[in-house]
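Example protein
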Amino acid sequence: MRAAVLHEIGQDKLEVLDDVEAVGFGPGKVKLRIRATGLCHSDVSAMSGVLPQPAPFVPGHEGAGEVLDIGDGVTGLSAGDRVLVCWLPACGACPACRRGQTQLCLAGFMNAGTPNFKRPGGDVFGFAGTGTFTEEVVVDAGCAVPVPDDVPFEIAALIGCGVTTGLGAAINTAQVQAGSSVAVIGCGGVGVSTIQGARVQGAAQIVAVDPVASRREAALRFGATEAVAPDELADAKQRITGGEGFDYVFEVVGRSATARTAYENTRRGGTLCIVGAGAMDDNFQVNMFELFFDEKRILPSMYGGGDVLRSYERAIALWRAGRIDLESMITHRVQLAEINEALGQMRTGESLRTCIEL
């Protein structure tokens, strides 16, 4: 079968091969036929080494498709079911799950060290224990979440990561209050989803911040009340908040420099929400006096900061009701053979979300 493979960390291009085989099928596992997968910035971060991932590997974790086969002991799924891929399934038994913080369950990460694929040259891993830039993949049954028949594969794929992450940051983690002021730094797919979440919550002002003009224009269509380049943020802060700072600032880039900018533009007593996934050696610093004196809440948001299964259901309900726009987030559609073109579009900021159709 075909799959896009990164041979070594640090390479900027994938090789589409037709000699890859999905492995690991057995008890508790399901085999999926991927029909659509989104290109998320985390895939690029894993390719570059910002996020830890053994290589060679098949990127992709934001996918949807059909169940081809189920292993012994799997319940609630049947061949032919439409599913989205959950890259962080909850085990239901660990301390985090028992506390109701299923997004902090580490069981899914344990799969990242087990190869999902093989080819004549040896084992191949799947990103985050999945790997959706492929025609077929074997995953734990908990990674395959049924979706209703009226949800297109490309929409289900987006809900599997970027939409859930962005909506959840605004709704679950920050709990944006109606009438509040919001700034979102970084307006790719996750940032735009954060904007939509803030709009659903009733924020009065939502300022989108991004260096790419096309992304600023898109942010306005998804609910931002204005969109500015990074060097215009200080002026927006002065105009909108009288220089005090925004009630909520979301950092959706994953870099300490932008996190520091977000902190400085959050009002005293306000909320800084870290959504972007960054590198382990990139340290965010605050001094002890400002940490105490400003009383700003610093809230990281992992995968939307809530139970992902409920978050999926909420996203589908909001989409059906026309409260959020998911179709327009897909700005490009490509075939697997065009994956490197899609990577280039993401790196330049040309795309919000690219759907790879398989």
In short: Residues 33 and 136 are 5 Å apart (CA to CA).
